[in-house]
Amino acid sequence: MSTAEKSADVVVIGGGVIGLSIAWRACMRGMRALVLEAGEIAHGASRHAAGMIAPVAEVAPGEERLLGLARRSAEIYPEFIAALAADCGREHVGYTRCGTLMVARDRDEAEALERERALRERLGIPVAPLAPSEARRREPGLAPTLRLALDLPDDHAVDPRTLCSALATAIVRRGGAIREHSPAVALQPGAVRVSRGTRVRAGATVIATGALGGGLAGVGEPVPSRPVKGQIMRLHDPEGPGLVTRVIRFPPTYVVPRGDGRYVIGGTSEERGLDTTVTAGAALSLLREAAELVPGIGELVLDEFTAGTRPGTPDNLPAIGPASVERVWWATGHYRGGVMLAPVTAELLVAALCGEPVDPLLAPCDPSRFWGAAA
């Protein structure tokens, strides 16, 4: 590193969507930000994510405490995207206002979907049920065997790879820096030590290492995290866009349109440690379930079938807030919601770095919940 790069107002450890968003927001607040990435940026969970911005569709029993944070993030996403497009000099950064249809194929799934609807109504989230004929009118690519659908028009999507590329460009254009293949190995008072012997002075340090963040010394009380494997496939239609225009969800499977003839089908959730092999069984299951609801899926061209690991905490809520070590902050454990929660995580964490009161929305995500005998 050159002399000018040996210090930063904030050093962000981890170059996924969370770390990049924090670094960019810090640059926007006038800080000098440096991202340290052990490998290549956005090649962990961010590379394999589908990119659904779906605070309503993603609500699951036991995770209701995250709803306020998720809805706030979805609300500010359009502003986040507009500012990012201006900063990186690109007209499009992969964001699509598409909406979601949650659908059921048979009676059991229809009953489950009614329970999903009831859960959302208890949480004060209005959800519109659709008759199968109306759902197929809106999405002609759906199979005639559809039994029930719920319309979630405010759910959107973004291509995480395009998003992360735009964030990296914006960071550099704002005067920040990104260093790939520079794994942080230890935190020291006011500094971060990198594996190749470099010591970077840091006004503040943010740990955003995701599922691969083990082995960092000096962090104080740790945040327990586990990798959760997810297999996902990417396809395209040689005829162009139009097979479906909304995200089609039939838990646990989903089809996400990119708006340009590309589609993502996902995703599995497997407690397999750091295993990232892809399996024939997962491919068969994803394609079979998707094709049952969207028969045209069978005519698409398969471009990629990959597996990544999401960072999950014991309660599946992220850890966002101060560490037990002074001027060190956690921003990890976002599990399935990293892309969805990136704007709000960056906004609220950087505000706290600037000395503003910690937003009450972050209360469920306080890292200290994992510390001490009670935890």
Short description:
The protein is α+β, with helices and mostly antiparallel strands and 375 residues long.
Protein architecture, described:
The protein is an alpha+beta fold. It contains 8 helices and 19 strands. The protein has helices spanning 17-28, 45-48, 67-88, 107-122, 132-138, 160-173, 280-293, 338-353; strands at residues 7-13, 33-36, 52-53, 95-96, 100-104, 128-130, 148-152, 156-158, 177-179, 184-188, 191-194, 199-207, 226-236, 247-250, 253-257, 262-266, 301-312, 319-322, 328-332. α1 (17-28) links the parallel β1 (7-13) and β2 (33-36). α1 packs parallel to α6 (160-173), α1 (17-28) runs parallel beside α8 and α3 crosses α8. The radius of gyration is 21 Å and the shape is globular. The model is unreliable at 1-5 (pLDDT under 50).
What are the salient characteristics of this protein?
eight-stranded mixed sheet; alpha+beta; 375 residues; 26% strand; disordered N terminus; globular; 28% helix
Sheet/helix structural class? alpha+beta
| Main sheet attributes: strand count, strand direction, barrel closure | 8 strands, mixed
H and E order: EHEHEHEEHEHEEHEEEEEEEEHEEEH
Low-confidence stretches: 1-5
Instruction: Please report the total strand number as a whole number.
Output: 19
Question: What spatial form do the alpha-carbon principal axes imply?
Answer: globular
Strand content: 25-35%
Helical residue percent band: 25-40%
- Put simply, the count of helices is 8
Any idea what the radius of gyration is?
21 Å
Mean pLDDT level: 93
**Separation of the first and last Cα atoms:** 40 Å
